[in-house]
Amino acid sequence: xxxxxxxxxxxxxxxxxxxxxxxxxxAPLTLDFSCxxxxxxxxxxxxxxxxxxxxxxxxxxSVRQVGDSDFELDLDRLPTTIQRLVxxxxxxxxxxxxxxxxxxxxxxxxxxxxxxFEFRGADFGRERAVMIAEIYRRDGWRLAxxxxxxxxxxxSVLAHFGGQEHKEPSRNAPPIPQPAxxxxxxxxxxxxxxxxxxxxxxxxxxxDNETGxxxxxxxxxxxALEGLRRDFLEASKSGxxxxxxxxxxxxxxxxxxxxITPDEALAFLRPDTIQFVERLLTMAGAEGAxxxxxxxxxxxxxxxxxxxxxxxKPFKTRLQRFKAIAQIRGGYLPVVSSGPLHxxxxxxxxxxxxxxxxxxxxxxxxxxxxxxxxxxxxxxxVPISVTGWKMQYKNIIQIKESTESIYLGLSTxxxxxxxxxxxxGHTEAVITTLTLMAxxxxxxxxxxxxxHISHDVRxxxxxxxxxxxxxxxxxxxxxxxxxxxxxxxxxxxxxxVQLLCRRCNLAKGDRI
Length: 512
Ligand SMILES: [Zn+2]
Ligand SMILES: [Zn+2]
What we know:
Helix 5 (262-287) packs antiparallel against helix 6 (292-304) and helix 5 (262-287) runs parallel beside helix 7 (309-329). The chain is of the alpha+beta class. The chain is globular and about 90 Å long. The two termini are 25 Å apart. The chain folds into 5 domains: 3-160, Sandwich (Lipoxygenase-1); 172-260, no CATH class; 274-322, no CATH class; 349-441, PH-domain like (Roll), CATH 2.30.29; 446-511, Orthogonal Bundle (DNA Binding (I), subunit A), CATH 1.10.30. It has helices at residues 154-160, 201-205, 215-235, 243-257, 262-287, 292-304, 309-329, 424-438, 445-451, 455-464, 502-511, and strands at 3-4, 9-11, 18-26, 30-38, 50-51, 63-66, 70-74, 84-92, 102-109, 112-119, 129-137, 141-150, 349-360, 365-375, 379-383, 389-391, 396-401, 405-410, 417-420, 478-482, 497-501. A hairpin with a 3-residue loop joins strand 11 (129-137) and strand 12 (141-150). The structure holds zinc ion (2 copies). Residues 469, 471-472, 474, 500-501, 503-504 line the site of one zinc ion.
């Protein structure tokens, strides 16, 4: 499944006509998603093919908006006058596109993803609308990743496509009451924040329908929230958020906030608070140990930030995992059943996992399914059909974790090669620890220290790499990576350390 870059095009010749476009954006913005079916001149000559929140379906169900940000397409049903479908994201109300933390456009055929395209706030400046992607006819249908921004909002996009100048009612404005019906005058509606009523119909139109605030209050609230965000970024800059700074920031906000609920403020801060917790966890992972204090601190922050339970879960899972791996590396190995394997007196089994042995030579490639067992005395591979082999820990000279396997390098005896296992992290930790114990090399505090990247270096790297994977830009599951591996003489200096997400870090293991 290709990930497109801006400007890239792919053919949809082999895709079905029934497709689904899905747009996902995380940003503290109210966004509208629309699809323009335009003619050969790039003009919206038929209004009925402008699909948006007020007109959710084009003729013949050729384009149908489902939910807010999904479009079901049946390309076969589009008349030939429609040459392009352009997908557009516009900001409704306050804000600009640079506030996007991450956006993604993806195209699906049933449950199969055909292509995707990512975009970020950094791609934009003060624009308020973006043509994100288009599907167009040229020897069949094609998909292009566009990502072109517009200074104005939906109005300027409409102007671009030359649609009739109908004034689209903003979703956020209250439905304009006809003077003769429900509301006799605009003065009957008052702002929930300042209590002032609208002076005219034009002013009432500017009321924010979701919050019930007048345009003046909406602007003030936005300014207050942005001030709060600046304070938070400043207070958390060092990677540690002092309770005192957190309290002070809210006191300052309280003095001006007037009827902004904490929930609204916390939701506004969410991309930044999530990023802060990610940083805490990346640091904890690099420490190689999670102390009860740092665990408590992470949990305390998750709650203070009002992060919803479903978003908390992956962080908590990672914390548990760091703890488990740190225990193993500290020599506290879990004891598990050895199954049918007979153990000698004093022998303890620490690992029993399904594994597939893969040996690659220049001439052949062998795959043998079986079980990998590690006891405190030996490492065994027991295949399902053929005879297995035993490995001596003292002969193991290299253990390397990659995306889906563990590579074992032995100085002598059989067993060299890749072992495909489900949980590579756990398997690697157990075998490495047993090997070090057998060689009486379990890292003492002294050795841990030399391998250890200092707090200052970690902070400098985090700031230089802006809390993103240097390979793919991901902002989650981050780890500190030695560019030149420590085992190959790479140093612990800022120049030799970078942020990689777990996926890219493991993929790097595949290459080295
Ligand atoms: Zn007001
Ligand atoms: Zn990455």
